Fold:
Amino acid sequence: MGSITFIEHNGTEHIVDFEAGKSLMQIALDNGIPGIDADCGGVCACGTCHVIIEGSAVNITGGATEDELQMLDLTPERS
Ligand code: FES
Structure:
């Protein structure tokens, strides 16, 4: 068990508890985080679940997988 802070584009913070082994998408859905639609249920077919992970937090989450990178290439927000 741990906690994670989701920050919306408008700066609103949501600090939620999570269990190890769940995806960020599932944690966001379980806690009703606005803006995480996750239309395909996490099978890398829609790109509506993506989040922006800052700096050293990538060391905790790990980088995006090849499937995730291909899906993110289709999103206009990605730089
Ligand atoms: S929920 Fe569809 S790509 Fe993540």
